[in-house]
């Protein structure tokens, strides 16, 4: 009788944990009300205020958008508040902010609001804001991933369907269930997430660029990245297989791919070290000589044909294959990951990293962000700004 009672309690605790994880997943996938408000108000400002529509950058600075003596950063996001933090932290951490060019890519619905923000809040760097709709070559015919992602029923069901169906809760652990939920984040099917694979086409005149995710904070001058010798490789990235953190920094190919699939088993090594997206220095000249984009497309299509049985987690797995052999490891101090996964992050290590990355569900702008890690992000939010105040985006 006692054993039956204990088993019942354990079952209820486990079910409660699964329920908590599911609610956290939905919270992470939702757009916070304040951020939604910010986008709407700035979009309205774009239509009614000529200053919000002014050309970015000003006409005399346009040639600098392709000047390779400048440091070019690329940021792809539909989150205006997050974009402002990335840009502000990068500029404030730079020893030569006037040499920075930011290329901000967003979607059509966010374009007006994003443009308004950077037009009305000038900084000592060159800013370009472009919508996906402004790239003429970015069509379904030229970019197969567009049609594949939009039309594939399996993808829609997987990312927007019932997240409990197909999960045997009695035979899985909360940790594994959390991983499965993480893999089903709707952001993984956003074209803004896939767009980085087209950087050589988007910026045909650039030699090098640093790509930044929107959930990072820059804490150190990043100009030395342009001096790193990539030794003929395309992608300078931090490896994620060498660290004590088993959740974030112990990732090999076996963590991302299904090696029971014959095509995966035949072509990949399960022990190969993975690397991080989020802060990457790309040699675009070397990239243009490789068929990285075609390899990416090939494997994306093969996974679709296999009903997503080769891998589940977003854009990193096809990139791990496409950039295979073209990655140059850079020092881990350049990019610290995992601030959105767990609350045990070492604060002293956070302070030392050049770039900190809130990858994971607990974003600093959401209600489920870790309280002790949020101030490192919020210090770059201008709470005196009228739009921030009016949308009640409050400092935590």
From TrEMBL:
Query: What do the Gene Ontology cellular component annotations say?
Result: Golgi membrane
Subcellular location per UniProt equals: Golgi apparatus membrane
Copy the pathway line from the protein's UniProt record.
Glycan metabolism; pectin biosynthesis
The way this protein sits in the membrane is described as: Single-pass type II membrane protein
Q: What is this protein called?
A: Hexosyltransferase
What is the source species? Answer: Kalanchoe fedtschenkoi (Lavender scallops)
Name the Enzyme Commission number(s) assigned to this protein: 2.4.1.-
Q: Does the keyword Hydrolase apply?
A: no
Q: Which GO terms describe its molecular function?
A: polygalacturonate 4-alpha-galacturonosyltransferase activity
Q: Which UniProt keywords apply?
A: Cell wall biogenesis/degradation, Glycosyltransferase, Golgi apparatus, Transferase
Major localization class = Golgi
One GO BP annotation here? pectin biosynthetic process
Q: Which family does it belong to?
A: Belongs to the glycosyltransferase 8 family.
């Amino acid at each position: 009788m006692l054993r039956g009672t204990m088993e019942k309690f354990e079952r209820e605790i486990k079910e409660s944990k699964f329920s908590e994880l599911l609610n956290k997943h939905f919270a992470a996938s939702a757009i916070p009300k304040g951020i939604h408000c910010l986008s709407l108000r700035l979009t309205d400002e774009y239509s009614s205020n000529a200053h919000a529509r002014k050309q970015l950058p000003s006409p005399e600075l346009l040639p600098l958008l392709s000047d390779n003596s400048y440091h070019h950063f690329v940021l792809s996001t539909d989150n205006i508040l997050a974009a402002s933090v990335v840009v502000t932290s990068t500029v404030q951490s730079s020893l030569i902010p006037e040499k920075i060019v930011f290329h901000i890519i967003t979607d059509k619905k966010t374009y007006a609001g994003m443009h308004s923000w950077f037009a009305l809040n000038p900084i000592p760097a060159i800013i370009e804001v472009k919508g996906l709709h402004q790239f003429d070559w970015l069509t379904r015919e030229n970019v197969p991933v567009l049609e594949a992602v939009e039309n594939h029923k399996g993808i829609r069901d997987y990312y927007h369907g019932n997240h409990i169906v197909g999960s045997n809760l009695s035979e899985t652990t909360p940790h594994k269930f959390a991983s499965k939920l993480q893999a089903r984040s709707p952001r993984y099917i956003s074209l803004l997430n896939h767009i980085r694979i087209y950087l050589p086409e988007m910026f045909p005149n650039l030699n090098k660029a640093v790509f930044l995710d929107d959930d990072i904070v820059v804490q150190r001058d990043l100009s030395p990245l342009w001096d790193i010798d990539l030794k003929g490789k395309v992608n300078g990235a931090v490896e994620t297989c060498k660290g004590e953190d088993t959740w974030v920094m112990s990732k090999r190919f076996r963590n991302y791919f299904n090696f029971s699939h014959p095509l995966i088993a035949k072509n990949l090594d399960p022990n190969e070290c993975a690397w991080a997206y989020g802060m990457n220095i790309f040699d675009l000249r070397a990239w243009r000589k490789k068929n990285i984009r075609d390899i990416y497309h090939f494997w994306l299509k093969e996974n679709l044909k296999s009903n997503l049985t080769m891998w589940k987690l977003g854009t990193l797995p096809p990139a791990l294959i496409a950039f295979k052999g073209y990655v140059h490891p850079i020092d881990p101090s350049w990019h610290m990951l995992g601030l959105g996964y767990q609350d045990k992050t070492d604060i002293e290590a956070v302070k030392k990293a050049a770039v900190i990355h809130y990858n994971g569900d607990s974003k600093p702008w959401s209600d489920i962000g870790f309280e002790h890690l949020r101030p490192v992000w919020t210090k770059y939010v201008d709470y005196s700004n009228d739009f921030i105040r009016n949308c009640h985006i409050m400092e935590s």
